[in-house]
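Here is one chain, start to finish.
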Amino acid sequence: MSAVSDPSRTVLLLNGPNLNLLGTRDPAQYGTTTLEEVERRVASLGRELGVEVVCAQSNSEGALVDRIHEARGWAGVVLNPGAYAHYGIALRDAIDAVEAPVVEVHISNVYAREEFRHTSVTAPVAAGYVAGCGVFGYELALRAVLRRGAERREAAGGAQAG
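Its structure:
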């Protein structure tokens, strides 16, 4: 990942396996919006909110872990882990290891789907969780990342003052 101008004002939008197929994969479940369109929308909202959004996608858990590590010290991470949410222990540990707030997002309502999707190993260490809102969930997750970051800064400031 290339160097960013201000890590404290940069958010990573990270998508996991099969999300590169958005727009064509199971449109009844995921809609017809492509990943590129999602990335454009979130980047545009980021500019409105005063942050840079860096976008990445990988079908490999190791590559996702590397990206999360690279975002240490950033404003946060919006993460759609895809199927890795259900068994990606290395991904879970990466989320837990970074200081930046990570908000997990899923396009579909995972609880209205197959039972194996009802368990997430990543959600318990995430700062927030958005599911079932379609691709609009990414915009909600960006706002949540920034809110969680502000809350953490306020708490740290209060702890230092006391």
